[in-house]
Amino acid sequence: MFLNLLFLTSALLTVGCSVAVLAVKNLMHACVFLLGALIGIAGLYATLGADFVAVTQIMVYVGGVVILMLFAVMLTGGKDHVSKTQKLKSLIPAMGNKTSYLIGCLTALVFFLTQGYLVSKLLGSIEVQKQVDTFSPTVQELGELLITNHVLPFELSSVLLLGALVGAAIIARPRKARPQYEEEAEEHH
Amino acid sequence: MEYTIANVAPIFLAPFFAFALNCLLIKKAPKLVDKVSVLGILVAFVFAIRIAVDFTGVANTDYYIHKVFTWFDLGETFKIDMGIYIDNMGAIMLLMVTGVASLIHIFSTWYMKGDVRYERFFLYMSLFTSAMLGLVLSDNLLSVFIFWEIMGFCSYSLIGFYFEKEKAGYASIKAFMTTRVGDVFFLLGILAIWHTVGSVDFVSIYNAVQAGAFGTTVSFLGMEVGLAAFAGVCIFLGTIGKSAQFPLQVWLPDAMMGPTPCSALIHAATMVAAGVYLSLRMYPMMVAGDLLNLIAMIGGITAFGAATIAMIQTDLKAVLAYSTISQLGYMVLGIGVGSYNAAFMHLITHAVFKACLFLSAGSVIHTVHTQEMPEMGGLRHKMKWTWIAMWCCTLAIAGVPIFSGFVSKDRILGDALYTALHAGLGYKYAVPALLGFLGAFLTPFYMCRMMFLTFHGKPRDQHIYDHAHSEHLKLNQNVPLLILSVFTLGMFFSGSLTGLGKIPAPVVPTEWFKTLVDSPTNNLERFSTYTKQQFGSVDTRENRVLEKTVYDSEAMTGYAGPNPDNKDGLHHAHVEGAIASVVIVACSIFLAFLMYIRGTIDPGKFVKMFSGWVTALKNKYYFDEIYIDVIIQKGLLKFNNFLAYVDMGLYDRYAIDGWEKVSRTLYRASRWFDDNVVDNTVDAFGVLAKTGHAVLRGLQSGLIQIYFIVLIIALAIMTVWINFIV
Amino acid sequence: MATESINIFIPVFVMMAIAVALFGGALLAAHLISPKNPTTLKEMPYECGEEPVGTAWSLFNIRFYVVGLIFIIFDVESVLMFPVATIFKKFNELGQGTYVLIIFLSFITVLLEGIAYCWKKGDLDWVKSFKAGDRK
Amino acid sequence: MTNTIAEFFYQFEGFKSLVEGMNPVTVSVLIIIAAGALVTVFMATVGGFGTIAERKISADLQARIGPNRVGPYGAFQLIADGIKMISKEDIFPRDADKFLFYLAPFICVFGVVSTFAVFPFGSGIALSQMNIGVFYLLAISSLVGVGIFLGGYASNSKWSMLGGMRGASQIISYEIPVTLSIMSIIVLAGGLSFESVLASQSGLPHNWYIFHNPFTFIGFFVFFVGGLAETNRAPFDLPEAESELVSGYHTEYTGIRFGLFALAEYMEIFILCGVAATLFLGGYNLPLGVLKGTVPEQFLQFGTILIKTLALYYVVIWVRWTFPRLRVDQLMTICWKYLTPMAIFNLVGCAVWMVAFDGKSMFDLFFGH
Amino acid sequence: MFGLEWYLGISLVLFFVGIAVILSRKNIVAILLGVELILNSAALNFVAYSRFVTQNLDGHIFSLFIIVIAAAEAAVGLAIVIRYFQINNTIHVDEAKELRG
């Protein structure tokens, strides 16, 4: 009973907030709705017994990614470029003309149908367990997996993050507002 | 005491880490370098004391530590272990090396102070010490060879330490090249042993000798040579090179271009003794190859010849250098007459007094800023402490009773006399014994001459005398000398004052040295019960004891030394030898006294009398000239020219130039192909790419969302394909 | 491994609901009680009595962003380290402590390299952008 | 093992017979709602008392009297303040982002109140004994940073904006040393739940993790300083620096929304002190096994954790009135150049200690057998 | 009880919303929001299959690494966006076409 309640709440939060991300005008609000959607997904993880993944989702996304997004929106002025054409009917392709609208709709339709077909075929062919409201604590087992079977990805992920840190720090390092070549080009004119 | 790798390895590792650390410090913190070096060697000294106390605590036992690890393993046939091997001899050697080296390090902080390359000197000294200790700890010939070469490199660097001087540079090259001759043969010997035994560690070699593995012969330059003799000669050639024996002795006098403390450590106390040490380790091999007579001859010739040259030298350090060669000759003579124990004893006593002598000479040179004895004289008033220390050592090297040189040298001479007279080997050994006694007459003479010229009489150059500073007792100048000179007393080695074993001294057990160090040939069988320990295991003394057994020379193929069972003859020869050498020493010192203090006898008369010989002495028996003019100019250079002709005249002209013609032709053909066929093909691709570019360019709009739509469409098509077509 | 019920999430859920209720209740109470008479002056942003010029939404120092950037990398690394830290004791008791320690330390070393790089390059200095030469 | 507070009640026979025949989940939910409300009220009261304590202690430190009009020694000042907050006008700035302006205090309160779900008040007396309780607490409390940033942003006032940005970057920065300090405790305890950390400590100081080894001793101070910064307490109160930024991120907030911000902050300090006491100072453990396994033990445990927490709370207030505020660059320097390397050092040290000494504490090494 | 297909459905919805965000928004930051949604839908799929089909924790590990990669991607992506904004003073996606052929 509680499981169903938790699932329904989380699912509603997720779907609602993600649609809101699509629909709202203000980018700042979109970021906040993304936060809601991510918390909802954390709730879904909890219903799946993935307690550690759920809390990680909150820790990384809420504590880190969303704040970074908010910062980025602030830094880039928070202007919403789509405000002119942002209407519910032109949501999906928004490429500005009728042909693209058509192509987009058709693609989405084909995609949705084939995906649905694929999933239904898949569900028919595999053995799917019933949802139960008990689970085992995962963190110890995750730790063991991380240092045994998955030790290489574990160590490599640290290198990946190091690379990301170095790269991002180089790119985002405060410098003059405009690079050198642009000024030189100006001088030539 | 329990032995693990943790309390053995630091002996070698402490100086090595000091070296490694100094490599980092030398640029950043040069002030710390000398302290780190001294600390490193002192740590090694402390560990060596622990081991030596444990080893020498119980007499009449043989005891070893042997720990190995696999160095590399290329299957059954090629597997090399590295390891640590310590027995009684090694323990005493470790104590000597660390003790002398630490005193020399301390002395160097005074002597080298203010030198431009002060830090670098300590760097090399630490590396050298660690290599020497590594050599002593080695359990096999291969690691001996590695450390041997590291020492050679350090020696080379230190001889050429003052590379601004052209002579120093040449001297270092000479030393390096001359010892290389011996090293090549040494390596050859190692290969011969490895080929025969399949292993190069000492114990395996002993066991192989015992099992008669060296009984076969090999064909060498058309001659059938016994394998043992071949390998033994090769290894002994290594000794000849390193220990500056005849005929490769030429490098050692020139090596005195290096700083005096390095001469003391490397060219007097340790490195040159390492050659003798190697011969001692390989003693069963020498015996099996029946090489002792050859060794004795070479030792005798070196001992006597070097002593004669030393008589006419005027350079303080040159006298000491030739005396070093001469004393090393005695050690080799000792090995040659089967006097294993006495040869090793002489190695130790010589290391102590010769290090002291060199340090004293350094002290004098540093004070008066000259090395020429004719410019000195009367320095005893100014340098009281150095004078005392140096006299102790002079008396020791001269072989005056009470001092250590008497104990060790007399035993070598006694054994030589016994071998010549009583061993029943004919008169093959008479010549070495005679040369030994002649050398024993010359040694006190030239040493006393040096002392009289330096310290006694009137100052011959008043200017230099006045400029010399009066000496005060300094912790890093005289104290090391005095400590060393205390150990020139014979009782520390024999336990009795005279060395004859009559008056027991209270401090040291009587004849501990004789009972502790024992020739492996006395009972080679015991090594067959021998087990190696892997690294990481713990040893105690109790489970590693080897029983000492009585002498059994019948098992050996060659003459293995004086038979201790023949007590009568041995005793007889030793008493005769002792009396003879005491008389000889007394005469010799008296002669020197008359010549240089009293002036009763004019040395010039002797020079006139033996003018031809003196000219030969001045030219060091023309060895350098023979090597350069005859061997190098006439032999090697011609051979070199011939090879150059083969290379340039034949190979270059025909083989290489011929190839050039062939390739030139091929090049022309391929160029035609390239111009006409390949280029056109490439152009065709270019046209294709140009056309394709025009088409594909339209897709590259630069708009992310267009790309994304293409991606999605592709994904959709793929999904459809997977679902409905596959 | 012990099996737990999904019910351990009930308190979390309930507390979140209580938070909503607390917030809603407090706002409702305030809405009912507090007076409402807004004036233009009251609704103006407080700038010590001065007339506000422009919007506040353009003030942003890129330094804050760089800090956020470094933070997120460290955050993710610490999340990955938590499971390993948890099993450290267990593996140590099994005698595998050194193995885990090596893995753990090599991970932390990379983390340290990151902080060392940022330190060296001055990304951790707040006032770097005001150094002479950087200013135009 | 009890997982939630409901199962704690199930261990009493009387309770079992009382609820016989009812759906256990329903009973659990009801109990949890009741207990959660109780905890929230308790925390709110403690948070409210925090303001009184702050004023009284600061007055004491400055040789003043402090509030003394409402009730004995001014003890009812809290109620007066609460009534004042509710009855003030709720002003909405003209240019503000209305949606975010409403949402920001909610996110703050949400982040703080959610942490109560795992806080251990006694053995078995925690709303939920989640197996990753410590981690959950860390994660959910990072919501406060988002709340403060949004509060600062939504006001569209320059002071608020500055305060909000400072607050967000400060909170996220100091989360790193705090996380790493906690991780060094996790390495020693071998579990991510509060219960496993507490089970490996005991009532007497020599078994507390602060005295376990030199690294945890340093780690406690790293944690505590980092915690002060995360809760925006002096000397790290830059986001609301009244002498620079008027009132920081809540300059434009009035009435009850300001009250909720303040309440969230004070409750968060209480949680911080509680976590510090639990992880480093032995938590609710009673010394010498007093009254083991009985109901009075649990009350004593509650008293123990409360005393330790309040002692730390006193230190927090004391620090505020003792040290001057830092500059922004000093703040970042302390976090990234001192605390984070120290925390990493502690973590490595604890891991090495774990392997080298089999996880024994210093006391065991010196005096153990 | 809600079974696997419900989770897959939610994942599909998230995926399509993500695509729609990417296609419809003209602000690059907003496009990154869409990317996050797509990544999350994939991670949700992994955990759901891990719960309902494979019954082991490999799916959890995979979603952990997805979160790691998403964080790294967000950090670098946003840094690039900010740099671009500093140079060109716009983050309109249609104006960012320096890579046009």
Low-confidence segments of chain C, given as residue ranges, are 129-136
Please compute the radius of gyration of chain D using only Cα atoms. Answer: 22 Å
Return the domain count of chain C. 1
Low-confidence stretches of chain D: none
| Main beta sheet strand tally, sense and closure of chain D | none
The number of helical segments of chain C is 3
Task: Write down the domain tally of chain D.
Answer: 1
Chain pair with largest interface: C-D, 75 and 94 residues
Order of helices and strands of chain C: EHHH
The helicity of chain D comes to 55-70%
Q: Summarize model confidence as the mean pLDDT of chain D.
A: 83
DSSP strand count of chain C: 1
Instruction: Give the biggest beta sheet of chain C.
Output: none
Helix- and strand-based class of chain D?
A: mainly alpha
Number of helices of chain D: 14
How confident is the prediction overall: mean pLDDT of chain C? 78
Shape of chain D: globular
Please give the alpha-carbon distance between the first and last residues of chain D: 32 Å
Terminal Cα separation of chain C, in Å?
A: 63 Å
Offer a few descriptive terms:
heteropentamer, C: 136 residues, mainly alpha, 3 helices, 1% strand, flat, E: mainly alpha, Helix Hairpins, elongated
Explain how this protein is built.
The complex is a heteropentamer of chains A (189), B (726), C (136), D (369) and E (101). Chain A has 189 residues and is mainly alpha-helical. Chain A has 7 helices and 1 strand. Chain A is globular and about 55 Å long. Chain B is elongated, with a radius of gyration of 33 Å. Chain B has helices at residues 9-28, 33-56, 88-111, 118-137, 141-159, 166-197, 202-211, 227-242, 251-254, 260-269, 271-281, 283-288, 292-311, 316-336, 340-368, 384-398, 404-421, 430-455, 462-467, 478-486, 491-494, 512-516, 567-598, 603-609, 611-618, 623-697, 704-725, and strands spanning 2-3, 62-63, 65-73, 79-86, 217-220, 223-226, 533-534, 539-540, 545-546. Chain B has 27 helices and 9 strands. In chain B, strand 5 (217-220) and strand 6 (223-226) form a beta hairpin. Mean pLDDT of chain B is 83; it is low at 502-506 and 549-554. In chain B, 68% of the residues lie in helices and 5% in strands. By secondary structure, chain B is mainly alpha-helical. Chain D is an all-alpha fold and 369 residues long. Chain D has one domain (91-367). The model of chain D has no long low-confidence stretch (mean pLDDT 83). Chains C and D meet through strand 1, helix 1, helix 2 and helix 3 of C and helix 3, helix 4, helix 5, helix 8 and helix 11 of D. Strand 1 of chain A pairs antiparallel with strand 1 of chain C, so a sheet runs across the interface.
Topology:
The complex is a heteropentamer of chains A (189), B (726), C (136), D (369) and E (101).
Chain A: H1 2-23, H2 27-47, H3 51-75, H4 98-125, E1 134-135, H5 139-147, H6 151-172, H7 180-188
Helix pairs in contact in A: 1-2, 2-3
Chain B: E1 2-3, H1 9-28, H2 33-56, E2 62-63, E3 65-73, E4 79-86, H3 88-111, H4 118-137, H5 141-159, H6 166-197, H7 202-211, E5 217-220, E6 223-226, H8 227-242, H9 251-254, H10 260-269, H11 271-281, H12 283-288, H13 292-311, H14 316-336, H15 340-368, H16 384-398, H17 404-421, H18 430-455, H19 462-467, H20 478-486, H21 491-494, H22 512-516, E7 533-534, E8 539-540, E9 545-546, H23 567-598, H24 603-609, H25 611-618, H26 623-697, H27 704-725
Parallel strand pairs in B: 3-7
Antiparallel strand pairs in B: 1-8, 2-9, 3-4, 5-6
Helix pairs in contact in B: 1-2, 1-4, 2-3, 2-4, 3-4, 3-10, 3-15, 3-20, 4-5, 5-6, 6-8, 8-11, 10-15, 11-14, 11-15, 13-14, 13-18, 14-15, 14-17, 14-18, 15-16, 15-17, 15-20, 16-18, 16-20, 17-18, 17-23, 18-23
Chain C: E1 4-5, H1 9-33, H2 62-93, H3 97-121
Helix pairs in contact in C: 2-3
